[in-house]
Amino acid sequence: MRDYYASELAQHRPGELLIARENGYDGTAVRADMRTIDRSNVTRLWEFKISASYEALGQILVYVAMARRAEEAAGSDCLIRGVIAAFNFQPEIVYTVERLNLSIELVALPPVLAHGGGIPTFAEPTSIPVIPGQSGLLASTGTEPYQQETP
């Protein structure tokens, strides 16, 4: 998902350039999914999620803090913002970002990116083996086992 978005960054975010994927910082094991910079010299740290929850908010806050610490140590004064990109967001996350003025962007990913991870949109039914003497296990659900003939 992240790699697909990064490969089409110019289409989704004109004027923004990819700096790194899996961007880490010295002295810590945390890594942002992606780091970009725009024409105004604003650096963005990205966290990609299928569904953004409290965990995503905590992660991006830590990433931004680590990036700001690293930039200050290097004598840089660039503006760093966090971005959470997801297909959907818990309503409390949206409210919290707005209410606390966290300067975190919430980017709704287009549904077509769901295919970026190579997840098939159609899968063949799975064959359920028949166990001799256990035929009554599925009877209570009213479903018949899918049986595929083998060649």
Give a brief rundown of this model:
This protein has 151 residues and is an alpha/beta fold. It contains four helices and five strands, in the order ααβββαβαβ. The chain has a single domain, classed as Trna Endonuclease, Chain: A, domain 1 (3-Layer(aba) Sandwich).
Strands, helices and their partners?
Layout: H1 2-7, H2 9-12, E1 16-24, E2 31-38, E3 42-52, H3 54-73, E4 79-89, H4 91-99, E5 104-108
Parallel strand pairs: 3-4, 4-5
Antiparallel strand pairs: 1-2, 2-3
Description of the molecule:
With 151 residues, this protein is an alpha/beta fold. It has one domain (2-114): Trna Endonuclease, Chain: A, domain 1. 26% of the residues lie in helices and 29% in strands. The chain has helices at residues 2-7, 9-12, 54-73, 91-99; strands at residues 16-24, 31-38, 42-52, 79-89, 104-108. It has a five-stranded mixed β-sheet with strand order 1-2-3-4-5. Strand 4, helix 4 and strand 5 (104-108) form a beta-alpha-beta unit. The longest helix is centred in the middle third of the chain and has 20 residues, at 54-73. It is globular, with a radius of gyration of 22 Å. The model has no long low-confidence stretch (mean pLDDT 79).
Radius of gyration: 22 Å
> Approximately what portion of the residues adopt beta-strand conformation?
25-35%
CATH topology: Trna Endonuclease, Chain: A, domain 1
Apparent shape: globular
Structural class, from secondary structure content? alpha/beta
The level of helicity is: 25-40%
GO molecular function: nucleic acid binding
